[in-house]
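User: Teach me something about this protein's shape.
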Amino acid sequence: MNLVVVGTQWGDEGKGKLVDLLSEKADIIVRYQGGHNAGHTVALGEKTIVLHLVPTGVLHPGKIGVIGNGVVIDPEALLSEIATLSSHGISVSGRLFISEMAHLIMPYHRAIDKASEHAKGSQKIGTTGRGIGPAYADKIARIGIRVIDLFDDALFRQKLESNLAEINIFLREVYQVEEFNSDAIYKEYVGYRDQIKPYVADTSVMIHSAIGQNRDILFEGAQGTHLDVDMGTYPFVTSSNATAGGACTGTGVGPTQIDEVLGVTKAYTTRVGQGPFPAELTEAMGESLRQKGGEFGATTGRARRCGWFDAVLVRYAVRVNGLTSLAVTKIDILDGMPDLYICDGYEYEGKIIKEMPSSLGVLQGCAPHLVRFPGWMEKTASVRTYKELPKNAKDYLDAISSAVGCRIDLISTGYRRADTIVLRNPFG
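Assistant: First, the predicted structure itself:
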């Protein structure tokens, strides 16, 4: 069984907890895109662990984690994360593998990222400044440095010096920031090479071998559908394919090998950074959702913008990902709210739009068409069976399922693994 888990909104949907939960029945957990700009927060007993690169499933003893070729890796960040896991008594030795074809984030990528955002001023995208975008840009420009290149001294030095010959001029003349020394970077990354060597593998072959053995594989992405560089609210997107198709290109697994795609959505909507957000709540209600839901970035601590559940966003995600089912998270955050709303369309120039507009200008001009639902005064927090849910909560969930055209398999009622209603486990 091969399952892809994707976010259906702008990321931060609670994928980390769901992947952690589903990993109990998976053998291998594969991360297929993004970098350490993403963060999955998982409650492990009384401890909370935030993972940025290492697949969430390694928190389970005996599970294998794979970082695929579609991920861009900052070696320092990866090694720091491995050390943090070790400090919690979690060893990844023999259980974590890195694709030799994954691209590396270099120090100059971080410098370009920060300088570019600063230069944009009010037009900035809202990146984390960690070099993700520039690393993907070099990948597409065919000048990227891959993990495997570290093991060929002559090639690594040649590529590094060739890149810096142009990049240093760019940094100096365009952004007026400090240039980089190739010898210093070479020495630093050779040091990383020796530390990551035990984890490096041809992971595509490894995954195919596991498929041939009928092992259960879970593919996890970072961010969400509407941050996908192709399918998202461009240009306010990430630099990789966060949609389900990225699981294939980011791991070397063909689409015919994927059995199911689970989409994760909050019971409301959030997004971080700039960009249009038709269902956004900008006053007291938005702040209430932010505080009650703890809507602050796991990686950056940035406050998330909050709004009502947007069925247009998620309906689009159902289509472009080919979702077979949904997991709805944070239903408990809506406890005690007398009135709830679902955005089932956008109002634009006197018409109701039911599908996601591609034009940024049109999307920025849209207002939400809201449908009211009665809230519930009872508690859903930590409820673990569907029968225990208040009737109005069930009606609200049914309305979400109907509005987006996809069944609901899982309902999260809290941050712990056990705070989950499993209507159907995709792994059986």
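Now, about its shape. The chain has a mean pLDDT of 93. The chain has two domains: 2-93+202-422, 103-198. If you'd like, I can walk through any region in more detail.
User: That's plenty for now, thanks!
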